[in-house]
From TrEMBL:
Transmembrane segments annotated in the record for this chain: none
UniProt-listed GO biological process terms: lipid metabolic process
Name of this protein: Group XV phospholipase A2
InterPro entries: AB_hydrolase_fold, LACT/PDAT_acylTrfase
Native source organism of the sequence: Strongylus vulgaris
Coiled coil: none
Entry GO MF terms: O-acyltransferase activity
Pfam families referenced in this protein's UniProt entry, alphabetically: LCAT
Amino acid sequence: MTDFLSLDGMYNACLHSSGQFLKRSRNILLCSVSLPFNSVASSTETVCFATVPGDAGSQLEANLTGKPSVVHYICSKQTKDYFDLWLNLELFTPLVIDCWVDNMLLVFNSSTGTTTNMPGVDIRVPGFGGTSTIEWLDKSRASPGSYFATLVDMMTSWGYKSGKTLQGAPYDWRRAPNELYLYFDALKVSIETTYRYHNHKKVVTVAHSMGNPVMLYFYNHIVDQEWKDKYIESHVSIAAPWGGAMQIVRVFASGYNMNYYRVILPPSKLRGMQRSFTSSAFLFPSYAVWNSSEVLASTDAKNYTLANVEEFFNDINYPTGWEQYKVASQMNGNLDPPGVKVHCIYGTGIDTAEHFSWAKGYFPDYPPDIVYGDGDGTVNRRSAEVCLRWNESNNHGKRVTTHELPGAEHMAIMSSPVAIELVRKAIYDLL
């Protein structure tokens, strides 16, 4: 008999209920929390379910099963077992980084709107149910890989136990939500099982960065209102790019070295890989936030807006991007409210890319000049504040609270004492 009180038992049940979930969906981050007995809200027990961002937010492991070709003679075609793919700082050395990029690439099928791994590459996400793989993205625990470590430490001090009352469910952040249906099936079963084995107490979901629009898709496309009313207590969003982020325009055009991880990577080496991720198209600036005449990027010869996105992708010599965008831009559409109580925490007051321009001869292969606006350094303020549009009248009677944190940077917010205290109050329904 399956022991649903353990995370392994719950996860195995999810796997059985959704077939090839682990192989196909590559996971998401899950966190389950029961309220400490000495909390001010000790009369109830709460379960917390947390998702992680799509952009480099969980570890990836790869097994090479026989690649038909490699980009350098030093690159392996086959491995005996899974090895650390992300985050692994040892792979970011000259030449080796090219092997890494080739292993990370996705292959887009325009007929299905979905992707596959490169031939001969199998990728999985480790650590479902625990927290170690989200606390640190690099198993060496080098400082660039610190992620949920501070928050997990604080929650442990509140009485939660990693792998038991504090759970995780990392997912393949390279993929957009339309590729996560088997994952969502497992996620749904996990929440239902957690609810059932915690005395029918509703679940709190917590997400950082892209985990929030992923969960918005889940709430608006996978489950109905009756299900949400029964199982979900609230959703806590941290630094959410609800309507995408302008930095994705640079990702597609010139590549971006994810400098908020403080890892020095050449953008030109990353561009092809980043373009192949359907999560990049999913985070392209949304028409529900940016108007169609607003200039997102410009060269000496042309302005690019949401009205001529196809030209943008053609001009950067990546027409596949248009096919990806046509699928991804419809996923969250008009950014309708999720139909659950929301506590929205976000940073402002930090220079955040608002417009990119390239001088003659520099587009698209060279870094652009940047005009900055307000945000958290990664997510534009207007995207983070989509939750201001939601209220009880349009969110099925569910309350929405918003908490602006001036000076809170996109990644640093995860260790901000103010943000962590807001998370605590949100979980205990004290906001």
